[in-house]
Amino acid sequence: MTSPATSSPAAPAPVILTGDRPTGPLHLGHFVGSLRNRVAYQNEYQQFVMLADAQALTDNMDDTGKVHRNVVEVALDYLAVGIDPTRSTIFIQSQVPELAELTFYYLNLVTVARLERNPTVKTEIALRNFERDIPAGFLTYPVSQASDISAFKATLVPVGEDQIPMIEQCNEIVRRFNRLVNKDILVECKALVPEIGRLPGIDGKAKMSKSLGNTINLGDTPDQIRAAVKQVYTDPLHLKVTDPGHVEGNVAFLYLDAFDTDKAALEEMKAHYTRGGLGDSIVKKRLDLVLQEMLEPIRARREEFAKDKGQVLQMLKEGTMKARAVAAGTVDEVRRALGLSYF
Ligand code: TRP
What we know:
A three-stranded parallel beta sheet has the order 1-2-3. α4 (97-106) crosses α8. By secondary structure, the protein is mainly alpha-helical. The chain has helices at 28-44, 53-57, 64-81, 97-106, 112-117, 119-127, 136-139, 141-151, 164-181, 222-231, 251-259, 263-275, 280-306, 309-337, and strands spanning 15-20, 46-51, 88-92, 156-158, 190-192. It is 54% helix and 7% strand.
C-alpha cells in the first residue's frame, strides 16, 4: 500500500479484518454484501479473512461437525470468488489461541449489563430463544470479536449494518484498555458498511439466509439455479401477461439490478413489465441466463480447488501461521502492559 504524500505519518496503514462463521455454504447475499468487496480490498489494503469457527460454536455446540465441515467449504467459496491467499491472509480462528488469551483479559473490561444491552446480541438471543438460558460464550462473543479485530490492529472492519454495535463495543474495549495501561497499544477501528443494501431471499423475505432456506449458493449446480429462479418471488398481482406489473419489491428485478450488466436492456424490460405485456417467464429466463453466466466460472474454480483439499488445508495452515505471528505480537504487548510478563 503506497500512502499519498499528504497523509500524516502517524496514521496507521489501513488493515482490514473480516470473517464469517462457517456454518453453511456462502450464497449470493454474501457475494453482494461482502465477498465482492473483499476481492477489491485485497488490492488496496492488508486484509485478514477469518474463518470464525470458534465463534460459530457459540450457538452450534450441538453440531460441531457442521462447523468443522464448513471451514473447508467456506474456504473453497473464498477461493472460488477470487479471494487470493497471496494477497489476503485467510486463517482459522480456533487455531490462533492468542485470540482466546486476549478474550480472557478483555472480559474484565466489560460488564454483563453492557453485553446484555448490545443490540446485536439482544436480537440474536431472541432469534435463538436463548432468553431464559444464555450460554455465557454466546453472551460474551462480542468480546471475542473485539479480540479478533484488535489482535490484528485492524482499522477497517467490513460488516453489515446489524454488526455496528459490535464495532462500538470493540472500540470501547480498546479505549478502556489503552486508558488502563496509559499507552496506545490497541487501535480503534471503523465499520465499513456496504452501500448496496441486503439482497432479499428468493421468497421475497428481507434477508437471504441459509436458515430460511431461501438462498442461491455460490456452488449450486445449473439445475439448482434454474429451480431456484423458478421459485423467485415476483409480483403476486401480475396474474395475466397483459396485466401491468410491479417492479418494486419484485425479487426477479432486484436480482437483475444487482447482477445484470446490460442496464439499458434491463430498464426497457422494467418499463415493459410495468405497462403490461411482459410475462414473468421472460424476466426469469433473463435472470436465469445472468445468474448462470455469473456463477459458472465461480463454480468451475470451486470444483477445481475442491479436487485437492489437502492444498486448501495447506493454504489455510500457512495463512493461520502468518495470522498467529501477528496476533502473538499484540498479545506480547498486551501482557507486558498488564504486568503479565516474568521471564
Ligand atoms: N460475527 C461475524 C458474523 O456473524 C463473524 C466475525 C467474527 C467477524 N469475528 C469477526 C466479523 C470480526 C468481523 C470482524 O459473520
